[in-house]
Amino acid sequence: MFIFDYLLTYPEWGPLILRVALGGAFVAHGYPKLFKMYAGFAGWLDSIGIRPGRFWALVVGVVEFFGGIALIAGVFTQFAAFLIAINMLVAMAKAKWGKSRYVDLERMGWELDLIYFAAALALVFLGPGAYAFGW
What we know:
Blueprint: H1 13-35, H2 38-47, H3 53-73, H4 77-96, H5 111-126
Helix pairs in contact: 1-3, 1-5, 2-3, 3-4, 4-5
């Protein structure tokens, strides 16, 4: 028995809430990578062994910014969420692995990346939910 049984009659709202929140976060992360600090981000990617940095900076920026917009709108939700999940796997493996898994402002652990990955993967399986403009 659930505390809020009446909420179980609205299962399509869960993915909607998840995709709007996750999409907003990725628009916020992708915008500066594409439009404000592209060269710096590309150089950083080169420095951690993701080459060519300029190419991958563009890919990451596009996936995060436009993928976030797609999630918010509910257009190509599963495809956008899949690309974001891959993005977060690479971020955890290349940039964060071996660092603290807990919040540590000096070492930037991977726990938030894991949550983003899990949320994106959930949307791959759940689909867009209510009020989506596409598939």
